[in-house]
Amino acid sequence: MEAQNARTEVRDAAQTARAAHMETPQTDPPASGGPRPLGDIITDLHKPIPERLLETRRQDGQEITYVPWYRAQKILNHYTRGFWEYRIVERWQQPDGGDFMMTVEITIHTVEGTFRRQGTGREEPTVNGGYGDVQSNAESMAFRRAAAKWGLGLDLYEGDA
Known about the structure:
Enolase-like, domain 1; three-stranded antiparallel β-sheet
């Protein structure tokens, strides 16, 4: 899919979601049935994430609100009816043992076809602070960023979708 078409789809879906005051996402198992239309999925993924599904942490002296990766997966399952895939595209670490970086891709299957978005994540081994490991932290960041490119959790970045 061309970048311009993707931007148009995302913009249109975001406008529709804001105008409709959509209900909050659930984390139920995927509904039965086949793939959904792309526009419907994008509209749903642009809905604000309910506060009960969010967590906070301190980072660089600030309180950060985020959706954990496993809850992002449940939301993707719900809105795509399970018709999505995830894969690691690339992973690498700086030769001196420095930052670990990862690129992941989320593929969503729709009635119109298959569409992909990628996200990147980076973790500094010295900043890790003992929570998780550098690879899983970079993967979690990359996954959540790829999901954000579908619209999931964009309201957390700027206060609105």
